[in-house]
Design brief:
The complex is a heterodimer of chains A (73) and B (411).
Chain A: E1 2-5, H1 15-19, E2 24-26, E3 33-35, H2 42-54, E4 60-63, H3 67-72
Antiparallel strand pairs in A: 1-4, 2-3
Chain B: E1 3-7, H1 11-22, E2 28-32, H2 48-51, H3 65-69, E3 72-75, E4 80-84, E5 89-92, E6 97-99, E7 102-105, E8 109-111, E9 124-125, H4 130-142, E10 145-149, H5 153-164, E11 168-172, H6 185-196, E12 201-203, E13 208-214, E14 217-223, E15 228-230, E16 233-236, E17 240-242, H7 245-249, E18 258-259, E19 271-273, E20 278-282, E21 288-290, H8 295-309, E22 321-326, E23 329-335, E24 342-346, E25 354-360, E26 363-370, H9 373-384, H10 391-395, H11 402-410
Parallel strand pairs in B: 1-2, 1-7, 2-3, 7-19, 9-16, 10-11, 10-16, 11-12, 18-20
Antiparallel strand pairs in B: 4-5, 5-6, 8-17, 13-14, 14-15, 20-21, 22-23, 23-26, 24-25, 25-26
Helix pairs in contact in B: 1-8
The chains are: A alpha+beta (73), B alpha/beta (411).
Chain lengths: 73, 411
């Protein structure tokens, strides 16, 4: 899994940090999302997918290693 | 064994279910939603989804397996008919019933209908659900003249997207300015100017008295002044009504929403209410009763109730925040105004990057930022810590407001 963030879209809602504080943080000065790791281990991946889906400004994009495998799962 | 039933599967309902599990709640959770869909986000429906830049799949807040993985019994396309407080159960439309040890009403709102319109007319739409958004998108594909009734967040976000698509857009507003109920006058002016620069026109202080149609499709909008504005698509976006009928029918207090106390509890100790449908005492303003429509409010109230139901009882006291993307501007609001505050502007509004600091007496009560994310985040801290800069400090871009926060933190 690879995570991409669109800092220009981020509204600083902080829902991603609620989903996974191990992967997402907010910049001190303006609250914009920052990635703590962009290639999270398997045990964090469900939380990352949840963070992407719950982001109100759709600023998190998750690129799966094997889209076909995920679709079949 | 405790069993929690959540009526409503929107932002608040889903967050409550998630947070209960995050907090280690081991009892049963049932969430009843009246839409066919799994819980989805509404904000993009008037933004990226409507603009065609976000796929439908991205709207859903969880993957289907989330509900099974977390033992959340999500029942979509179902409705609660009645709440029986004596038996402590909700009765479903399907005939089944769900006993509860605690019930949470998170039923949200529905769109206010235009009083002069009866029945459905082709080309007249409103926007709340995925289906509404798809209907509006289809309408926009064919439309040449869109009339938006109501200059609130939703209407103006849609106006922005329609003007991007080179559709003629006219906005009709009953009040005197754009976003008049939610932002201060300087921000209204900037928003109006940004839309007008893109060709959107406005009519203020005008009531819509009739919609006219030709061959069953809307053809014009008639104003109180007698003017008839040609239209082949009309978006009605004149606010919402809280879904509080279930609460009222079982005897709970309802006044502009389901009335709750500082812990978001109704007068029945076994029933809470959260999100857009709940009227709660706003701690930062003398406990006056407010009802807020925002993601932040839905999420934070859900977390507050999840904490209470898992043993950590605290009053709800969060800084309200809102945001809107429109006409190339990002609006971000922190705090809540009554509408009669003094306003101090920081930076030149003509640049399209400024913030409005709203004061009641010497107290900062809200900050509205136009494409100024750092100001917004600073404002959240100031409001949370109840730090009020002087008007001079707020109005002086050279004065670093952060030093007030740092000073307080160090003290």
């Amino acid at each position: 899994m690879k995570i991409h963030i669109r800092q220009d879209l981020c509204v600083g809602a902080g829902l991603c940090v609620l989903s996974s504080a191990q992967v997402f943080d907010q910049r001190e000065e303006d609250g914009v999302v920052v990635l703590l790791q962009d290639n999270p281990p398997p045990e964090l991946q469900d939380a990352v997918r949840g963070a992407a889906r719950k982001c109100p400004s759709l600023a998190i994009v998750v690129e799966e290693d094997d889209p076909a495998g995920v679709a079949a799962a | 064994m405790s069993n929690i039933v959540i009526i409503g599967a929107g932002q608040a309902g889903l967050q409550l279910a998630s947070s209960l599990r995050d907090n280690g709640f081991a009892g049963s959770i049932t969430m009843v939603g009246d839409e066919v869909h799994a819980p989805y986000q509404r904000p993009p429906l008037s933004k990226a989804f409507l603009a065609g830049t976000a796929p439908e799949a991205m709207l859903f807040m969880q993957e289907p397996k989330f509900f099974a993985d977390h033992a959340i019994d999500f029942r979509g396309n179902e409705a609660v008919e009645t709440i029986d407080r004596e038996l402590k159960q909700v009765n479903l439309r399907s005939g089944a019933f769900l006993p509860y040890s605690h019930l949470v009403i998170a039923t949200g709102t529905r769109n206010r209908a235009l009083p002069c319109v009866e029945g459905e007319t082709s080309g007249v739409v409103s926007l709340r659900t995925i289906e509404d958004a798809k209907a509006l998108m289809q309408g926009l594909e064919r439309a040449t003249k869109l009339v938006v009734i109501g200059a609130g967040f939703l209407g103006l976000e849609a106006a922005s997207i329609a003007s991007d698509a080179k559709i003629d857009v006219r906005v009709i507003e009953a009040g005197g300015r754009a976003l008049g109920r939610v932002v201060s006058a300087p921000v209204s002016a900037a928003v109006q100017a940004a839309h007008e620069a893109r060709g959107v026109t406005f009519s203020f202080n005008e009531a819509v008295v009739a919609l006219h149609s030709t061959d069953g499709h809307v053809s014009s909008v008639e104003l109180g002044s007698g003017e008839r504005i040609p239209a082949d698509l009309v978006l009605v976006s004149i606010g919402v009504v809280p879904n509080s009928e279930l609460a009222a029918a079982c005897g709970l207090a309802v006044h502009n929403g389901v009335v709750v106390d500082a812990r978001l509890l109704t007068e029945d100790p076994d029933i809470s209410s959260i999100g857009d449908c709940a009227a709660f005492p706003f701690a930062a303003d003398e406990g006056r009763m407010v009802r807020l429509e925002s993601v932040q409010n839905a999420v934070d109230q859900a977390r507050c109730v999840a904490d209470r139901l898992t043993g950590k009882v605290e009053a709800y006291d969060q800084v309200p925040t809102f945001w809107s993307d429109q006409a190339g501007l990002r609006l971000q609001m922190a705090g809540l105004t009554r509408g009669d505050e003094d306003v101090v502007v920081r930076r030149d509004p003509a640049t399209g990057n400024f913030s409005a600091y709203c004061y009641r007496g010497d107290n900062l009560v809200a900050v509205e930022s136009v494409s100024r994310l750092p100001d917004h985040m600073q404002a959240r801290k100031l409001l949370r810590m109840k730090i009020s800069p002087s008007r001079e400090q707020a109005g002086d871009p050279a004065f670093d407001l952060k030093q007030l926060v740092n000073k307080e933190t160090a003290a």
